[in-house]
Specification:
Layout lengths: L2 H14 L7 H14 L3 H15 L22 H18 L24 H9 L3 H4 L3 H15 L17 E2 L2 H4 L1 H11 L2 H18 E2 L5 E2 L2 E2 L15 H19 L8 H19 L24 H18 L5 H11 L77 E3 L2 E6 L3 H19 L5 H4 L3 H22 L1
Antiparallel strand pairs: 1-4, 2-3, 5-6
Helix pairs in contact: 1-17, 2-15, 3-4, 3-15, 4-5, 5-7, 5-9, 9-10, 9-11, 10-11, 11-12, 11-13, 12-13, 13-14, 13-15, 15-17
The structure holds 2-acetamido-2-deoxy-beta-D-glucopyranose (8 copies).
The site of one 2-acetamido-2-deoxy-beta-D-glucopyranose has 9 residues, from helix 5, helix 7 and helix 9.
GO molecular function, one term: hydrolase activity, acting on glycosyl bonds
Pfam families: Glyco_hydro_88
Organism: Mycena albidolilacea
Length: 487
């Protein structure tokens, strides 16, 4: 391949149509911020999965090449998989499992029972591809310990829903992303369909408790806890929580569908698909003309309720995934509008409020929502441990272009999505959200694949120009990938 030509071809396309797409340099900056920011258990798990989805799609659960993935790592994916394996290695090494310790979550001392399971996908992949034979780390044992902990130690409701918290039974919408995708992936990699059934059952139970028919099927955030410092409940319809639920369900659908057991789980996939659509319908009924969700979707923007680009990115990503996996295009027009708003340039006509969300220097104001000012981290046990940031090098080589995102309305100059909910305090506006950065990667990944597959349902979205953008990005990504591989 004549690489320099290909580079300039891609660059030309990108410069022509950059108005509503992030450039590769933008994405690299977003990825680097995610790497430095992600420290809590769910942030590490979310980071690992977003890296797979965007940079190593052959090892993603969304890969149409099928599951289980290849047991050997092709040379052209070694560098892209390195940060994912690094997360698994750091976490499992810190765990220090021994023969006398009972089953435990992948991150010890985390008050959340559900969150550490999200790292399980990276740990299972590390085992599957034989990383342990090189570094001596027992990934299978750690994954098994997390599984047994989740199934046999964590408290449950009387009908079997596994608590999101260690110290008491409390269900969080977040858990749908953290736990069932791990159970399903474990089931497929070990040929244990009981675990696929359990993944489905958990989601069904969670929906029974969290779906709010009085709010047209939006999901509540947190229920059943004793509403004290350890377990503040949150009956509000947290936008990110609705996104976690839809995204977790889509991961389980993909894991089933791309596995050898797809036919055995067709009715479960059908149910899950209808529950994803139910959330999309409920959420988009509430979005206003900015095409950015508020932190609690059914509460209009006000002095107490801010816009949240993190949940908007996550929800939009799930609409493209639903288009690809389920052939469901009904909400594509909404997702396209969200994506255009999220990636709008400061001057762009689609950005009706050019200063919207831009952080002023020194502005640390956090607006408190009426419904919740509870702290996610404060509600963790005092021994809550954060895993030390991985020493992983960012994906891009030092020579890859990185640039400030100074021209984008919804990113700070140094490349953080804004405005966002504080990921450690779900009722409060924050500054840097690692999970928000991961949601941007998920949006980019799903959008790229949607475009590469011919933008199914694009007519419903009424846009054709977007196809050019995606193709240019895909072409550029491949070019950069091959440059890195040959570097
Ligand atoms: C990776 O996926 C592509 C399609 O997305 C496929 O053509 C290719 O064979 C896959 N490679 C491996 C090693 O599975
Ligand atoms: C690696 O090569 C395969 C073809 O063998 C291709 O499908 C895949 O996209 C490549 N992966 C990356 C990350 O470049
Ligand atoms: C095994 O792990 C448990 C729990 O982490 C710890 O209390 C115990 O001291 C460890 N035992 C050994 C021999 O390392
Ligand atoms: C670990 O990987 C091996 C294949 O190398 C597989 O047989 C085993 O079931 C895996 N264990 C887990 C817990 O995934
Ligand atoms: C609430 O649950 C926590 C965790 O189990 C417990 O420590 C605390 O005592 C409980 N508070 C009340 C008032 O029941
Ligand atoms: C599947 O996993 C469950 C939970 O770990 C276990 O109890 C069961 O024995 C496994 N089934 C098979 C066939 O391995
Ligand atoms: C417009 O920007 C201002 C200043 O950042 C912000 O307070 C306001 O919420 C934005 N309005 C809309 C509709 O985006
Ligand atoms: C915004 O508009 C100003 C004035 O027309 C122009 O100088 C600047 O380059 C524009 N910025 C972008 C990102 O288009």
């Amino acid at each position: 391949m004549h690489r320099p030509l290909a580079v300039s071809f891609a660059a030309t396309l990108l410069s022509l149509v950059s108005a509503q797409a992030l450039s590769e340099a933008d994405i690299t900056t977003v990825t680097q911020n995610l790497a430095t920011g992600a420290q809590q258990s769910w942030e590490l798990g979310t980071r690992a999965q977003s890296l797979l989805d965007l940079y190593v799609p052959n090892f993603s659960v969304f890969s149409s090449t099928g599951l289980p993935p290849s047991a050997s790592v092709p040379s052209n994916t070694t560098s892209a998989l390195a940060p994912v394996f690094s997360i698994a290695k750091n976490v499992v090494s810190a765990l220090k499992l021994n023969s006398t310790s009972g089953p435990s979550g992948l991150v010890g001392g985390d008050g959340a029972a559900g969150d550490p399971a999200s790292i399980g996908v990276a740990v299972l992949l590390a085992n599957w591809t034989g990383q342990g034979s090189g570094d001596g780390v027992d990934y299978a044992k750690a994954a098994q310990s997390q599984l047994e902990y989740t199934l046999n130690v964590v408290p449950r409701t009387s009908d079997g829903a596994i608590s999101h918290r260690v110290a008491q039974v409390q269900l969080w919408s977040d858990s749908v992303f953290m736990v069932p995708p791990f159970l399903a992936y474990y089931g497929v990699l070990t040929g244990n369909t009981t675990l696929l059934t359990e993944a489905y059952n958990q989601i069904k139970l969670y929906r029974n408790y969290l779906r709010d028919t009085d709010a047209k099927n939006l999901w509540k955030h947190i229920v059943l806890g004793n509403n004290t410092q350890d377990g503040p409940n949150d009956d509000g319809h947290w936008s990110t929580g609705n996104g976690w639920a839809a995204a977790g369900m889509l991961r389980v659908i993909a894991t089933m569908k791309n596995s050898p057991y797809s036919k055995d789980f067709s009715s479960q996939q059908k149910d899950l698909a209808s529950w994803v659509k139910e959330i999309h319908t409920a959420m988009f009924a509430n979005i206003d003309s900015t095409n950015i969700f508020t932190n609690y979707a059914d509460k209009p923007a006000s002095s107490d309720m801010f816009y949240d680009t993190a949940s908007t990115s996550l929800i939009a990503s799930t609409v493209y995934r639903a288009a690809l996996l389920l052939n469901d295009h009904s909400h594509l027009p909404n997702a396209e509008k969200c994506r255009e708003a999220l990636f709008a340039t400061s001057n762009s006509s689609s950005s009706s409020n050019s200063t919207f969300g831009r952080r002023q220097a020194g502005d640390s104001s956090a607006s408190h929502s009426a419904s919740a000012s509870a702290s996610r981290s404060a509600s963790r046990s005092s021994g809550a441990s954060s895993v030390s940031p991985s020493s992983t090098a960012p994906l891009a080589s030092p020579s890859a272009t990185t640039a400030p995102l100074s021209k984008l309305a919804h990113f700070t100059d140094d490349g953080w999505l804004t405005p966002v909910v504080n990921p450690h305090q779900f009722g409060v506006q924050g500054q840097n959200s690692p999970e928000g950065q991961a949601f941007v990667l998920e949006l980019q990944a799903a959008y790229n694949e949607w475009v590469a597959s011919g933008s199914p349902g694009a007519n419903a979205a009424g846009r054709t120009a977007s196809a050019v953008v995606g193709w240019a990005w895909v072409a550029g990504c491949v070019v950069v990938g091959s440059l890195l591989a040959y570097a």
